[in-house]
Amino acid sequence: QTPAAADSAAATPPPVRTRWTPKPEQILILESIFNSGMVNPPKDETVRIRKLLEKFGPVGDANVFYWFQNRRSRSRRRQRQLQAAATSASVGGGGAGFSQELMAADCYYPATFWGSSSSSGIQGNINISDTNNNNNNNNSDLINFPASVLEQSPKFFYEDSSCLQFRQPVITVFINGMSMDVSGGPMDVKAAFGGDFVVVHSSGTAVPINEYGFLLEGLKPGENYFLV
Amino acid sequence: QTPAAADSAAATPPPVRTRWTPKPEQILILESIFNSGMVNPPKDETVRIRKLLEKFGPVGDANVFYWFQNRRSRSRRRQRQLQAAATSASVGGGGAGFSQELMAADCYYPATFWGSSSSSGIQGNINISDTNNNNNNNNSDLINFPASVLEQSPKFFYEDSSCLQFRQPVITVFINGMSMDVSGGPMDVKAAFGGDFVVVHSSGTAVPINEYGFLLEGLKPGENYFLV
DNA sequence: GAGATATGAATGAACG
DNA sequence: CGTTCATTCATATCTC
Question: pLDDT value at position B88?
Fold first, then answer.
């Protein structure tokens, strides 16, 4: 039953969750299975797991499947992240940021694929989602712009130190008669001027571009060009 | 679900989760990057951004990743919302070459752009994850830096002198009859003009915007536009 | 300081 | 599997 239903609104007392929200007990079970090494349960295992989980609340095979998929994916990502973090050196400030999750060991498992390669239906059953989205919540969500941000204007950069960023010289040229500052090196015409223009020098010769739309050479400071 | 309540433990032992609170300077930087068109920075870019932000306070790659993810999501939703609100406006129109395209305001775009169409490979999309390897090369012989990486409104333009600089050529156009300097590349309409306008060229055609409310292409120097 | 809002973080569900 | 989207949760921030 979709919210549509035509009839009058009002109804939506039934707290229909569009997406599965695992109960703490379910998470505990899933977590322990995962941590035991079974990070990628075959289909039949998935079904068993689902049945186990059902004792604590509605859940479908697909939910279990997705859970493991996400768990593997995110666990691995985190692993990589901090691996990389270790690689990168110091930098003072050391970041903040990351969340908890102590890092359940990501122990890989032989990997038994189920269902052959990929997808193909994960199985069609289920889902809790029986529907609906509902929600009458109307949240307004207007924009926003950190007003406070605009106020405090700071002077940024002025001190650099570790930022190997190469910067390209900015030169001043005349485009269609107007003075303009542009990158001194080869540039992406479309990105810079907003369209696939042919840049023509005042002498009448067009500035050559490569197959990607980049100027092969930078413009010459103080010269006049036209966008055609 | 509240962490409490669960008899047995849940999956979040550490109840104290302090969240990153970006400094005004950091927000300004992030906003300018986003508004410049880089709405979905690849992993390496994310790292660079994080390093830049670190000058103003502790921050991790994950924070940057989440920031862009949330920014895209919320910007997109907002855009969708007001597009829906505008749907009621006459749509088809047929012919008169004028009003017709006023509402063509929303042409979806692939999503990761900023290299503009063809930039050669800088873009890719990855995220925090990335794995590995790859990236071998880096000898770009062409690209240097996405030209579209920049700064957006000429007003704030911290001509700094250090690293990473986001700046795009500024062009002069006429908006509602007034001469005005704007970013030459794709820009965030709302951020630039202060409202969700449809930018109409003097020829009567509307300048297309993407799902985030960004102009797909920059304005043309010296041309006349109207905000509707 | 309770309620409303802005927004960082987390995660289920897809897609390719 | 990596990536991305849509929601949801939780907290920082602001207001009266």
Answer: 53
Q: What is the CATH code for A24-85?
A: 1.10.10
Q: Which two tokens stand for residue B17?
A: 């989760």
* Residue given tokens 């993810």 in the structure block: B69
Interchain CB distance below 8 Å, A180 and B191: no
**What average pLDDT does the segment A36-49 reach?**
85
Q: Which nucleotide is nearest to A135 (CA to C1')?
A: D7
Task: Look at the domain A170-227 and name its fold.
Answer: Ubiquitin-like (UB roll) (3.10.20)
Nearest to B161 among A157, A175, A213 (CB): A157
pLDDT at B197: 81
- The integer distance in angstroms from the CA atom of A121 to the C1' atom of C16 is 14
CB A183 within 8 A of CB A192: yes
pTM of the model as a whole: 0.54
Contacts of A94 in chain B (CB under 8 A): 58
Q: What pLDDT shows up at residue A208?
A: 78
Q: Cα dist. A58→A51, A55, A78, A132, B10 in Å?
A: 10, 8, 29, 16, 18
The pLDDT of residue A136 is 33
Nearest residue to nucleotide C11, by CA–C1' distance, is A70
The closest CB to that of A192, out of B61, B185, B219, belongs to B185
Report the residue of A23, A190, A224 to disrupt the B interface, i.e. the one with the largest count of B CBs within 10 Å. Answer: A190
The residue with greater pLDDT, B19 or B118, is B19
Contact by Cβ (8 Å): B108, B210: yes
Output the pLDDT for position A17.
Answer: 55
Residues linked to residue B178 through DSSP beta bridges, in sequence order: B175
Beta bridge partners of A209: A215
**CA–C1' gap, A28 and C12, in angstroms:** 17
Identify which has the larger pLDDT, B84 or B204: B204
Domain ranges across chain A: 24-85, 170-227
